[in-house]
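Example 349.
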Amino acid sequence: MRVTLSQIHKSFGAVQVVKGLDLTIQDGEFLVLLGPSGCGKTTALRMVAGLESVTSGRILIGERDVTNVLPKYRDVAMVFQSYALYPHMTVAENIAYPLKLRKVPPAERDAAVRGAAAKVHLEEFLDRYPRQLSGGQRQRVALARAMVRRPSVFLMDEPLSNLDAKLRGHMRSELKRLQAELGVTTIYVTHDQVEAMTLAHRVAIMNKGVVQQIATPREIYEDPANLFVAGFIGSPPMNFLQGSLSGGTFAFGEGRFAVGVEGDRRNVTAGIRPEDCTVTSPSNGRISARVYSIELMGDHTLVTCQIGQEYLTVKADKLAQYAMDEPIGITFKDAAVFLFDSESGERIR
Ligand code: ATP
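Predicted structure in complex with adenosine-5'-triphosphate:
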């Protein structure tokens, strides 16, 4: 079902944590709310769940205004980071619990539990207790318990963050498949850009209680709305150089390069992604630099280059070999250069 948030504000005392949130999540969509710690994303999710009241604004699920509706009547299922399983109940009892509360007859309940367990590959574990399961298995129980209710909306708060890296990657793809199969509208909160980029149909990036951009993962990467989004998405992060524009040239510290943008302007930040830069001979570069450090990352090499007082990271081939302090050139395409107003963070180009 579609979820609509309009002009949602939330304050705790004098502190405003969500400021004018407007967001429509389409029926069946997987929307990820992404942002740094404390940006207000969990609070936003908890308001949709009804676990937190709104200070002002409206929340609709489908056509129904649920702004003042109790959580249990909103028809949403929430999955938490902590799983929140009942330790004294078996897996089957945990999954069945929401149906038991609704007084669903036992036979129907058992069928639903088996169906949900099969979806998350837990059939063999139905008689175990949570303490006898791995983190990934516990998380699957929490998902099955959410699924069994057949809610209109899934709300997930960092559901994978307690798992180790390998399991997290595995559960990520399981979750993506599951959501696609069930087609249930999902709002998923994380501070992990990889989760956001891989899971989402669309990502809403928040900072300090304000949505910075809502777009597909590809658009966010290729066409960031502002300095914050540009710096938040990408690993290693986008390189930023502080300088000014004049006569079609961007000048910074000890370097300058043509950018083809007319007009004079101070306080400009140029952004170039490490993967868009190439190390060349000193005479062929658009910027002259020295090699500061080299790190072999397995399938690629990160070369940190020093230009006067500034540093720029280049993602180079795994076979790249340079000596420390070796003079080099750095080159990149015109289209790889993003320009921002340093003060407002607005994109100039
Ligand atoms: P994290 O990823 O760390 O959970 P977040 O983006 O989800 O961060 P929120 O949990 O939504 O952020 O918190 C946003 C801000 O609101 C934080 O500064 C937090 O301290 C504050 N906050 C959250 N809940 C309360 C509360 N019940 N009372 C007072 N302040 C709160």
